[in-house]
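Progress against Task 2.4 (sequence-to-structure conversion) is shown through the following example record, which the project officer requested during the mid-term review.
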Amino acid sequence: MKNCDILIKGCEILGPGMSVTGPCSVAIHKSLIEKIGPSDQVEKEYLGGTVVDGRGKLLMPGMVDGHTHTCQQLLRGRVSDEYPMIWTRFLVPFESNLKPEDTRISGQLACLEMIKSGTTAFADSGGVHMDQVAETVIESGMRAAIAKSTMDMGDIVSGAMKETAQEAVERTRDLYRSYHGAGDGRVSIWFAIRQVMTCSRELIAMVRDAAAELHTGIHAHLCEHRDEVIFCLKNYQKRPAQFLDEMGVLGPNLLTAHNVMLSDEDIRCMAERGVKVIHCPRANLAYHGFPKTPQILREGLNVGLGSDGAAPSNLDLFDEIKVLRYAMLAYWGLPYFNPVVMTCPTLLKMASQGGANALGLGSSIGSVEEGKKADVILLKTEQPHIRPTQNLVNSLVDAACGHDVTDSIIDGKLVMKDRNVLTLDEEKIRYEAAAHMEQIMRRV
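Structure tokens generated for the chain above:
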């Protein structure tokens, strides 16, 4: 018999085509999915160092959160039922007052929540003390593309969040030198363009060049709201996507978050350039509107999903899936009697493979296949809100939630078993997070 690090016995599997097969057993060794096959065959061939009982569970790719703000975790519950602009009135003052230890506990709480809701990788668009987030990712066992927020102009930006273009880029370079490739390759450091209203031409050009030099990604908010479009038309006589194209930023290494206010020409141009699109359904619908997701997909753009952080809601991508499904049906489907405008398999693929592609990791993670990295989760399906079902994929989208996730494996290591996170002290983190939240609000 061959030895393997983890042997998962008797599970069903959500395959890359979004169809369910099984029962099967899966051998994981040295961070990779080494063997998938009928249980009797795999269990005769492999002896697992750790054995996970997969009966009554579905093995599926870990969710990938393509746009989040781990430093906003301690702002949870504050921004609901508030008038715009939330960003200027709450988020910037809050983030500007964070100390390194606040960012560390916020990152720990975010990673804890993501692991427990089935997310195995994420892209963080950045805050001030992102070295603390990188340390937390290493500790937690998660995978992440981490950017440092960069802004050098605008009256609304102050304190620690406002820098010169040179300072912003050099501090990201420092972060890159310290953490890119850390955690056995689970951490990657990206550059950021927080948004065109707060980033000068000089900063955008420097970010473009530095990311190209270091062969890494750029994380940007794009066409999130009308003010951004108005700003660009007034100052550059171009829409935001067109302005970034003129600056040479649109390309395969650019991840854009939100993408609500895209014109038809924006979409075509972004598709030609291979830009990666992330939707944040709950945040978008709460503040900005309905994206043109069916059209974006038809043009061939890669679409993933993001939570936009915990300030307005939570980090459960199963919730994002549901909101986007019914928003698209109501806005684009119902008026034209098109019930398949956004199908369940499409949505599941967005939350997994779509997010993996956005992080530049589509060939390594995002699906359950032999030879890919073992970034997978087990979800308990033998529950009355899921089974019996005539179509398990449909029920995953319509009925499952993050609390149904029982086990998480990232980079071939067991990170959560039977809903107990093995890498982080949940009780300690929640206690310390409550204390830090109170201290921050007193300062702000």
